[in-house]
Amino acid sequence: MAITLKINGKNKSVDAAEGTPLLWVLRDHMGLTGTKFGCGVAQCGACTVHVDGVPIRSCITAHEDVEGSDVTTIEAASGKVADAIRAAWEELAVPQCGYCQAGQIMSAINLLETNKSPTDDDIDNAMSGNICRCATYVRIRAAIKDAAKSV
Prior knowledge:
There is one protein chain. The chain is of the alpha+beta class. The protein folds into 2 domains: about 5-75, Ubiquitin-like (UB roll); about 80-150, Orthogonal Bundle (DNA polymerase, domain 1), CATH 1.10.150. The protein is built from 5 helices and 5 strands. Strands 2-1-5-3-4 form a 5-stranded mixed sheet, with helices on both faces. Strand 3 (about 50) and strand 4 (about 55) form a beta hairpin. The longest helix is centred in the last third of the chain and has 14 residues, at about 100-115. It is globular, with a radius of gyration of 15 Å. The chain starts with a strand and ends with a helix.
């Protein structure tokens, strides 16, 4: 049965089997491939999207559970905080392989939207659900601090 999801500000009809993870609806049904599959068990954070402004792991969230909510993917992340995060990411050359970066950025956006002056502990706690196999954690922390200066 088809349901309507609000994805990146637009209502979209989705006909997927009940229990299909939001990740696969985004990628396979909507062609939004910025959200990545990493582990499938909500441990790596590569699949992070915002639901009503809160970061969630889309690999374990059934698509029907977000019906009526506002889902934002990396493709539509925007605004002063998102722009500051992206600029800092580029300026400090945060990505190495880049695979985890969409999830990292979505978590970092949420952090700065809720805490304009995060400490190292705040950053570590907010980002702890995002794994970077290239271990760019020092650059991630520095980029978040840099972005915080401009928001």
